[in-house]
Amino acid sequence: MSSVKTKNLTPLYAFIQGLYWMNFAAIMGYSGFYLLGSGFSNTEIGIIIAIAGILSAVLQPVLASYADRPESPSLKKFLQLLLVLQLILGISLLFCKSILLTGVVYGCGVTLLQLLTPFINSLGMESINQGHNLIFGIARGMGSVAYAALSYVLGIITSRTGITAVPVCIMIVTLVLMGCLALFPFTKNSSGPTGDNSKKQTSNPLQFLRKYKRFTIVLVGCILIYLGHVLLNSFTFQIVQSKGGGSSEMGTATAIAAMSELPTLFLFGYMLKKARCDIWFRLTGIFFTLKSLGSLLAPNMTVFYGIQIFQMLGWGLMAAASVYYVNSIMDAEDAIKGQAYITMTYTLGSVIGAFLGGALIDFSGVNTMLLFATISAAVGAVIIFFGAEKTA
C-alpha cells in the first residue's frame, strides 16, 4: 500500500462524482422528455430503457472481470474509453434523422451510463486502498447535490430551447468529466495490496458467485430492495396524485428525499468509526421498507412529505454503505467485479420495476403497486440482514 497520503483527493473525486451524476440527471432524468419529444410513445420509451438496463446488467460483470485482471488497462483508462464513447453518442444525437436511429443511440447512451457506475465507485475505493486521502461519502454526497442542481437548471433550459439542450448538456458534462479524470492521479496496482499475484482469478460468474456464497445471497436481497425503491421513484407522480397532489407537490417530495440523503453521505466516514460497515448495510433494508410502507399508508401529502425522511437511512445510506461493504469483503483481484455485481442489482431492479410498475397500476391501482413494493423491500431487507457477513 502506498504511504503517500499528503494529497487530498476528495475535492477532485467529488467533481468526478458530481459530473457523473449530472450526466445521470441529463440522460436518465430527461429520457422521457427527450424521447417523447423525438416521437416515441411511453411504451416505446419503457422498452428502450429496459433493453438498455438488460444490456448493462449483462455487460457490467463481463467488463469488470476483465478490468480486474493484472494485465488489463487501469480503471482510469477504462473510464476514459467509456467517456469517449459517451461523448460520441452525445454528438450523434444532434445528427440523428430517423426515429429508429435516435432510439438506438439513446439506448446505447443509457447502457454506457450504467456501465460507468461500478468503475466510478471502484476508482474511489481503490484510491483509498492505495493509501490516498479520500472521503468517499462526501464525494458521493456532492454527486447528489450536482444531480439535483442540474435537474433544476436543465428544466429551465429545456423549457426554452426544447430537446436539443439534452445532448448538448451530455456533451459538455462529459468533456468536463474527461478533463477532471485526466487530472486524477491513479496508478493501477496490478499485484493488489498484499503483493500476492498468485490468487486464482474468478472471471467466470459462476466461479465468482461460488467463491462469495453469502454475497450471492445479499445480491438477491438487493434486487428485491431496489425493485421496491424503483417502483416508488419511477411512479412518484402517480403516487402523489393518489394523495391529492400534482407535479408541484411531486417536485417538493423529490427535493425533500434528495436533501435527506446528504447528511448520511457527508457523515458516513464518521459513522464508520461508530459501527462496522455491515451493521449500517443491514439497516438500509429496514428504512427502504419503512419508506414503502409509509408511502402506502400516508393519507395525504403532508404525511407523504414526512416519510421522505426515511431516504436518509435508506437510499442515502445504501449509496455509501454498499460500496464500502463490497470493498471490505472482496479480495483485491475481485474488487471491481464486486462493485459491478452490486450495481447490477439496481439495474435489474430497475428493469423489473419498469415492466411491473405500470402493469400493477393499470390493473389494480397505485395502492396495489405500493403494497407490492413494500413486500419486495421487506423480503429483501430480511435477506440482507441475515445474509450480510461481518466486516472488519
Roughly how much helix do the residues carry, as a percent range?
Answer: over 70%
**Strand content range:** under 5%
Q: Biggest sheet, open or closed, and with what strands and sense?
A: none
Given the C-alpha coordinates, what overall shape results? globular
How many H/I helical runs?
Answer: 16
Terminal CA distance reads 18 Å
Radius of gyration: 20 Å
Query: Overall mean pLDDT score?
Result: 87
By DSSP, the count of extended strands is 0
- What sequence of helices (H) and strands (E) makes up the elements? HHHHHHHHHHHHHHHH
Structural class: mainly alpha
Unreliable spans: 1-5, 191-198
Q: Would you summarize the structure shown here?
A:
The protein is mainly α.
Descriptive account of the structure:
The chain is an all-alpha fold and 392 residues long. The protein has helices at residues 10-29, 31-37, 42-67, 75-93, 99-129, 136-161, 165-183, 205-211, 213-234, 236-242, 247-274, 277-297, 301-307, 315-329, 335-364, 366-387. It is globular and about 55 Å long. The chain starts with 9 loop residues before the first helix and ends in a 5-residue tail after the last helix.
Give the topology, please.
Layout: H1 10-29, H2 31-37, H3 42-67, H4 75-93, H5 99-129, H6 136-161, H7 165-183, H8 205-211, H9 213-234, H10 236-242, H11 247-274, H12 277-297, H13 301-307, H14 315-329, H15 335-364, H16 366-387
Helix pairs in contact: 1-5, 1-6, 1-7, 3-5, 3-15, 4-5, 4-7, 5-15, 6-11, 9-12, 9-15, 9-16, 10-11, 11-14, 12-14, 12-16, 14-15, 15-16
Please supply descriptive tags for the structure shown above:
disordered N terminus, 16 helices, 392 residues, 78% helix, mainly alpha, globular
